[in-house]
Amino acid sequence: MADPRRSTLKRRNGTSTRKRDPIPKSQEEPIGIQEVPEAENMAEKIGTENQDRAERFEPDSVRLQFQEKLLRLQAEFDNYRKRQARDFRRLCEQGKKDLIQELLAVLDNYHRAEQLVEEGGHSVEEITDGLMKTSEQLVSILKQEGLKELEVAEGDPFDPNIHEAMLAESRDGLDQDTVLEIFQRGYSLGQDLLRPARVRVGKPLSSSVTGEQPETGGGE
Predict the structure, then answer these.
(1) R_g over Cα of the chain
(2) Are residues 138 and 201 in the same domain?
(3) I need a surface site. Which of 46, 159, 162, 165 has the fewest CB within 10 A?
(4) Is 75 exposed, middle or buried (0-12, 13-18, 19+ CB in 10 A)?
């Protein structure tokens, strides 16, 4: 039989012989700090914003360096442009000198022909031969510079791209506008038309009735 005094003492001390339920393992494990994945992204964003802010507010010394570099580049470009213009003028002047130097030889031959006429005693054939050689020399020099005579002949169809009609008249037997006479030869320089051939144009009688006229220009 149990001692009633011992049971009373245990109740007074707040103790009991009843076994307690075991604590779940989930409660026994210590609570750790949860990882926040957004923290790294936030730090990276803040770093980028700080860098952008630093770039927007550059120190005065850096801005001054860029301004000095810009001024130097502007000065160098201005000097380059002036050199290019100066060199171009020199080339043009040298080109004119070279051309005139060659034309002086033609002028000398022309003066010799004049002298033959003034002296007298020379046949017309001699004078004509001298003038022809002078003309050939001039044409040769101009060809070297790129001058080319347009191929125009009487009877060619009228072409407003290379012909300039100074006069126009109706002609029987023509089926299109036709070159009747060449007043002045035409020339091209390289790929450019320097001067059109100035011509007299014959028009078919049918076109004269309808009132069609080729382009005409004023004579010089």
Answers:
(1) 53
(2) no
(3) 46
(4) exposed
